[in-house]
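Question: what's this shape?

___
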Amino acid sequence: MTTPDTSGAAAVAPAATSDRFGPFGGRYVPETLIPALDALEAEYDAALRDPSFQRDLDDMLRHYVGRPSILSEAPRLSAMVGAPVWLKREDLNHTGAHKINNTVGQVLLARRMGKRRIIAETGAGQHGVATATVCARFGLQCVVFMGEEDIRRQALNVWRMRLMGATVMPVTSGTRTLKDATSEAIRDWVTNVEDSHYIIGSVVGPAPYPRMVREFQAAIGREARAQMLERTGRLPKTVVACVGGGSNAMGIFAGFVDDAEVELVGVEAAGEGLESGRHSASLTLGTPGVLHGSLSYLLQDAKGQVINAHSISAGLDYPGVGPEHAHLKQSKRAEYVSITDDEALRGFALLSRAEGIIPALETSHAIAWVEKSRGRWAKDEPVLICLSGRGDKDVAQVSEMGALPDVGPLPEYPA
């Protein structure tokens, strides 16, 4: 195995059909998985050309998931920020997050390949719930790997998965979070590759997963672009999304990446502070390396050993990121910033109080960055936030922490 040169910035626009995004991506997996990846890639490319697959996918997204998701104004948050803030409401999808867009697409692929056993990994539990949901819909066996620490933090989602018939496999190695769950899922797939399909929940992993998951999530961006033009008559000045592995961000970025005048901002988890060493800011402080089958930015020491990640949000607690984000960073098409745990809690409280919407802790990072950046935009420059998931799953965890930050006085609702 060789590590490609990552020193030069490649073309700005990533190629949708490439297995690499600039120098990033690729396949760094055991040889036993190559035939399965080849078969998956061939089936995926054939499905894209098959009108019946697109009809089935569109029907599921419309009549089961609830797409298109709506676009909501956030009037009181807008008054605080000084610019119109709009929310793409993936929290209103069936199961409460963007994750189900991808699981619907991948389960339809698995059925085409005759695979009836589904493997998944999950951190915050939303991908696990989405996978268990679609498996229940089609009567497929479902095994979800989840770190013990995340099982503790996301007990409600564990119960939901088991209710729908999934087997939740606790992972006790390492930090007992998403990285370790992903490693265990890959080990299971190596052993059971003949009859099992592995649904990776983000734009990470070996090719073709990053581009495939991005395309299954791209409905977010396509809808949002059309809705912004319809509601405001213009494109947003800035599109903002939280980034762990990066699937909701790639989904909404996909609708605007060719619009050079639209800023793309990904918000990583700074955890207890970038200087503390306890964070998940792989694009801000990471370096290129290989993790879970692809080359991207990750948190690693000088010897290439992966450093443990930390975030208050189980969904962002991952030391790597999708390779397309690495390319967008290196080509300077997107900007990546970070928000601490405490700032994310303020975002969690702020959107709940100001708009009556309880956001997931992941999304709260994006909310917090927009509020913290007030004054950055003119009063006629719209800001679009991907509201990737709802916060029901996080309420118990946050309530155990005690009092939330005081968000201070809020503006009156506009007359």
Summary: The chain is about 40% helix and 15% strand. The first helix runs from residue 34 to 48. Residues 75 and 413 are 7 Å apart (CA to CA). The mean pLDDT is 93.
